[in-house]
Amino acid sequence: MGNSYAIEVEGLHKSYGDIEAVRGIDLKVKIGEIFALLGPNGAGKTTTIEILEGFIEPNAGQVRVLGYDPARHERTYKERIGIVLQETEVEEFLSVEESIQLVRSYYQNPLSIDDVLAATGLTDLRKVRPRKLSGGQKRRLDVAMGLAGNPDLLFLDEPTTGFDPHARRDAWDMLRNLRELGKTVLLTSHYMDEVEHVADRAAVMISGKIVSEGTPQELAHESEPTICFSADKNLTFPKELAADVNQDDDRYELSSPDLVKTLHVLTGWAIENSVELENLSISRGSLDDAFVKLTQSSEEKSED
User: Fold this and answer.
1) Regarding predicted confidence, which is higher, 300 or 43?
2) Which residues contact 146 (CB under 8 A, 6 or more apart)?
3) Domain at 5-218, CATH homologous superfamily
């Protein structure tokens, strides 16, 4: 195992009785990158992350996080990681600044209070008490408390659950600030657009295995581009149209690996048969499409 990675996992297994939660995964997260671990509920993400954090021990495999074995529970290791859960309890009578200062006091080399506030966008709210913060601002405080100890690696669980669109984009800016500070971030999220905006790389985990890994753009390419349009109901397309067709009332969606050929056949057939293709649009595959495809494919294999 080299020294250019914050996280290195080889052949990781974890079972609970007869249930195999993690089934031999390999994973590497580079120092200084934002890495997203994706998957449906029950995929094994939480178990994997709790092993990396040192809360549970694996049955088999090698794990190195910042060069440490998390299962040894070394203090020096714990001081180098930050953990932000989906919900964090804070003292309601302390201000934002006082809450962060309290956490800073637990560490030997904490991040300066001004750097924490700036990175999380809380500078103008430093004297405000948590009960007066909005949901998005409270989440920023959660991240600030996880960042206070100046960790090299931050575990971030569902950073924007329940946020409105504006608050989510503010949170994305915050995550980019963490990258500029040189922090490595391992996050989980059910929002694929979020991952596309903030993550350098991502892995999709299903049924205890990693089924795909790469940049968000590389993962998105695993889904096929689509052609959408509205037309008269119950159209009969030519055999030459090599595409999967989904119909919802008068709305059609065609998926095909050969977009140019499919579009050529479709438009030629429409002209010959005087078919109006209203609101015609073409879209490349998205990470959300790829995630759904990977999940459905895994479910189909498990049923066979």
Assistant:
1) 43
2) 82, 83, 84, 154, 155, 156
3) P-loop containing nucleotide triphosphate hydrolases (3.40.50.300)
